[in-house]
Amino acid sequence: MSPLLPDDQVCAAYRQTRQSVLELLERTPESSATLGVPACPDWTVQQTASHLVGVPEDLLAGRMEGITSDAWTNAQVQRHAGDSLEELRAALEATVTPFDAMLPAISSPSNSQLVMDALTHSIDLREALGVECEESSLPLSVAKAWLLDLIERRGPSASAAVQSAECSDLELVRALTGRRSAAQMDELGLPGAQIVAALAGTPLRPPA
Q1: Distance between CA atoms of residues 120 and 49, nearest Å
Q2: CA-CA distance, 161 to 189, in Å (whole number)?
Q3: Distance in angstroms (rounded) separating the CA atoms of residues 24 and 131
Q4: What is the pLDDT of residues 108-157, one digit of tens each?
Q5: Contact 119, 176 (CB under 8 A)
């Protein structure tokens, strides 16, 4: 049986994640825009926010070629190069009505993957800005379900150990999205080497 959550919960999770990003951008000073993002060392706060804005923009515009690839995401960053955090917030807010109309038509599991990506980068921003992250939430549940489904398909030998781990949903999602090394995953009671192998060839590459 698939661990993926029902579509209505997935849609609600995306909207919650987007709202949290809007609120975070609203209260983040422009002086923080150039801060590096440890979980995305090639990007600053401004560039990470540009990706979060760029995904719904591209989906609305039908720019699907190379979706989820480095080239696709870097094009979003380049498109918004020079935008202030206030401008990025306004651009994201401008997608709310049209994207909410599109959201229910995004099929499973792509809708859960959308939540996973948005949530992952929103947490990246929070960590870079020193803002506390929730240990559990609906978006974390949706992301966790998509990631468990991914591990079941790509690394079934690791699946049971991952599902039985006693770490928080936050830590599990961070581990399975390439934000923890194999050694750090081992410390969490997760099969680090097996997870690294299962994620090989995906954008969710754990750091060395």
Answers
A1: 12
A2: 8
A3: 9
A4: 999 999 999 999 999 999 999 999 999 999 999 999 999 999 999 998 88
A5: no
Q: Which residues contact 54 (CB under 8 A, 6 or more apart)?
A: 73, 75, 76, 77, 79, 80
Sign of CA dihedral 79, 60, 13, 85: positive
* In contact, 131 and 160? CB cutoff 8 Å: no
Q: Which of 166, 172, 164 is nearest to 143 (CA)?
A: 172
3-state helix, strand, coil in the chain (%, to 5): 65, 5, 30
Element (DSSP H or E) covering residue 17: helix 7-27
Dig out the tokens for 112 from the structure.
Answer: 């859960």
Please give the structure tokens belonging to residue 39: 């979980």
Q: Is the pTM of this model over 0.90?
A: yes
What pLDDT score does 1 carry? 62
- The token duo for 117 is 């990506």
